Amino acid sequence: AEVQDVTEGPSVTRFELSVEKGVKVSRITALQDDIKMALAAKDIRIEAPIPGTSRVGIEVPNQNPTTVN
């Protein structure tokens, strides 16, 4: 997988990954604990695929969330 885009929001950062054709979603979601450990994140959310795309989204809570004005 390769990171294609990073979007930082007020409470989460989303990493958009492109994966090779033929890679099963279950293979990606099975790596959730390994991804959490690699990112030192308490929790993550995997969105596979991101609707309307062939990319996988991984949302990681920001350590210091900001307030939206």
Key traits:
69 residues; alpha+beta; Threonyl-tRNA Synthetase, Chain A, domain 2; 4-stranded antiparallel β-sheet; 2 helices; 4 strands; 19% helix; FtsK alpha domain-containing protein; FtsK_alpha
Could you walk me through the main structural features you see in this protein, from its secondary elements to its overall organization?
The structure is a single chain. By secondary structure, this protein is α+β, with helices and mostly antiparallel strands. The chain has a single domain, classed as Threonyl-tRNA Synthetase, Chain A, domain 2. It is 19% helix and 35% strand. The protein has 2 helices and 4 strands. A 4-stranded antiparallel sheet has the order 1-2-4-3, with no helix packed on it.
> What number of structural domains do the residues give?
1
Strand content: 25-35%
Number of DSSP-assigned strands: 4
Q: The CATH topology is what?
A: Threonyl-tRNA Synthetase, Chain A, domain 2
Order of H and E elements: EEHHEE
Which class best fits the helix and strand makeup?
A: alpha+beta
CATH architectural type: 2-Layer Sandwich
N-C termini distance = 35 Å
Helix content: 10-25%
Tally of individual helices = 2
> How can the largest sheet be summarized?
4 strands, antiparallel
Mean pLDDT: 92
If strands are numbered along the chain, what order do they take across the biggest sheet? 1-2-4-3
Low-pLDDT stretches are none
What is the level 1 CATH name?
Alpha Beta
Radius of gyration: 12 Å
Principal-axis shape equals globular
Task: Lay out the secondary structure.
Layout: E1 2-8, E2 12-18, H1 25-29, H2 32-39, E3 45-47, E4 55-61
